[in-house]
Structure formats: structure tokens, C-alpha cells
């Protein structure tokens, strides 16, 4: 999970406290023993033991049973204070929302898809979404709800908790989504863009040694989330990974939704596929129609999808050569099509340096459509844990703290939104 605290994203300076990072790792299920936590955070066993002891005393962490170790005594398994506490989360699309419950320890349950038209604007869409999430929370015990997470298909100012200049979300610009959800539910709320949520969700379930990765979501639009040294990388203004508006020769002077011309989005996104196939006389109205045609072996649709994958691979290759990640994960509707995935993979192997691709994993997101939902829930739980830590702290609570990364760190630590 990313190693950025809630306080930092709300404008506070300084690194996340060690306690916050320990809580987030336990909540996500990435770290369940003191030994694992020490390795992930690059901290000494004694420091981790002291921090865990303080969290246990405050009722934020409990020790439940033991787990066999490769040598020595069995290790005590750590859990967030109340195992039945939970967060509700939503991953918003253009015409639907995927919702579910995320439990401390990284379990995702009660996943379902509900109708939601994002073009109706936040004043119409959010109350309907909130009502559905309330019903979900009631089934699990409303008094045990600790956080609400929301993945949004547009650029997000995380500190403000709002979408900024979205191209396909009319009426959402600068609407305070996080504040609205927080006031409605009375618990901490976290919002982020869909690619970042997917990157965090997928990273949490991947092997610990994969510390550098790129998540690409390819649906109606294209989004990218970056995990660098085990942490979500946002960039100076939160816009890191925006490859959708990189100029590409194949696009020529085609106008883009951003106001420029020749962007990758105009030749590789789901929206461009629908537009271009319709211009060629193929009867498609939405991306789902393209998916069905390719699945049925339609030659025109299949060729168009292959070309889109090749264009994405061309732009992505420059980023792969520069960043040299361990893995590239593909998500979104187009990632379900083998011709698209094969075209991306082929272009990367053709265009990247052999040293870069020698051990590079290129695969669909293992969580599939749930990656963004899971990431949004993890963000919400981390925000809730940070709030609980603050509320339970005594004057000396901040005494134990470490820099954001350690020389022996094995994986990124806490995330939040």
C-alpha cells in the first residue's frame, strides 16, 4: 500500500507516524506479525514491538492466536481491534457503480453492481449511491461502519476530496465528494481516481517483492496508477501517470476531450473505438457492444481492438523503459479481450530494452473488476485507522516515528486518501 498518511494528503507536513503505517499494514492484511512489520517498514524488531504494544494498550490492535514460523516460537497474529468493523466502498463508472464491504485484514465481500448515471451530476447520483451503501452497511451493523471509500473516473484533488476538470463527469468539478460522504455517514471518507485505487488494490494482493508496478485501466478512457518503491506515486500535483494525453503520431490531428489534438485517448480508448467503428459503419453504441463483437470474432472490431492495444503499448513502452517496473497490470473492460492484451504485450516486448522486459510481468489485474473497489476500501480503512489513532492518542503518542521509508524496507507501508 502507498506510504502516505492521511495527514500528509490533507496538507500536513512530515512523514507518516510509525503507528499509522503499522495500522494500515495490519488493516490491509499485508502485515500480520511483528516480524513481517519490521521487514516491511525497515524498523528494528524492538521498535515494532513497542509500537504494537502501544496500539494493543489503546485497543486498536488485538492478538488472535498464533502462526507457525520457520524457526523459534510461533508468532502471534495481529488484527485490527474489532474484526467485525468494516468500510463500505464504491467504484463509479459512467452508468453503474460497483459496491462492496472491505473488512480489516483485506477481505472484500458483498460485491454487487448497481445502476448509477454519473452524467446526472453529484446532486442526483450521490444521494442514490449513499442510500445503497447505507443499506449495505445496515446489513453488516451500521454501528460497526468505520469508513467510506469512493473510486472516481476522473482527476481527483485528494486533499480537497473533489474531482477537478473531469472530461466525462458534467457537474462534478470541485464538488466536495469526500466531505459530502463524510457528513452523510458520520465516518471518515476517502476518494481517489479509479486508476490509483486499482493500483493500490492490486498491489496489496501481489507478492511483496513486486515493489514497482504500473496499473493501466483501459475503459472508455485511459488511466494509470504508479507504485514506486512499494508506495503510490502521485507526483508534484497529483497528476502522475496521465498517459492518456500523450501525443502519438497515429492520432494525427484528431481532436481530444482535453482540447488538444493527437492524444493517445483518441486512438486507444474505448470511446475512440466506439466512435471509429461507427464511422466505419459498424453498429455499436457503447463499449459493451465492441466487447461483444470481439468476443464473437467480428473481424473489423477485432482489428480495431488490436490497433488500440498496439497504440497503448507504443506510449506505455516509453514509460516502461524510463521506470523499469517489476510488473504492468491491465484493468478495465478492454483488458478482458485477449487480442487487446496480446497487442499491448507484443508492442512492449518489441519497443522496450531487453533488460527492462527480462523479468517484467505483463498481465491482467488479478482482482479484475474488483481492484478499484478494493483499493477504495483500503483507503477508507486507513483513514479510519488514522482517525482512531488520533482519537486514542495521549500527549506522548507521537514519540515513536520513522521516516517514510527505511533502508531495509521490503514493501510500501500505509496508504490513505
Which percent range describes the beta-strand content?
A: 15-25%
Say how many strands there are.
Answer: 14
User: What's the SSE pattern?
Assistant: HHHHEEEEEHEEEHEHEEEHHHHEHHEH
Shape category: globular
What is the count of DSSP helices, taking H or I runs of 4+ residues? 14
Note the main sheet: 5 strands, mixed
Summarize model confidence as the mean pLDDT.
86
Low-confidence stretches: 1-15, 394-417
Please give the share of residues in helix.
25-40%
SS class = alpha/beta
Alpha-carbon Rg, integer = 22 Å
The strand line-up of the biggest sheet is 5-4-3-6-9
Distance linking N and C termini: 11 Å
Describe the structure.
The chain is of the alpha/beta class. It has helices at 6-9, 18-28, 34-41, 45-57, 122-140, 177-185, 194-205, 265-268, 270-279, 287-295, 299-323, 338-351, 354-357, 371-392, and strands at residues 61-67, 75-80, 86-92, 96-103, 107-115, 145-152, 156-157, 162-163, 189-193, 213-218, 222-228, 231-233, 327-331, 361-364. 39% of the residues lie in helices and 19% in strands. The strands form four sheets. A five-stranded mixed sheet has the order 5-4-3-6-9, with helices on both faces. It has a five-stranded mixed sheet with strand order 12-11-10-13-14, with helices on one face. The model is unreliable at 1-15 and 394-417 (pLDDT under 50).
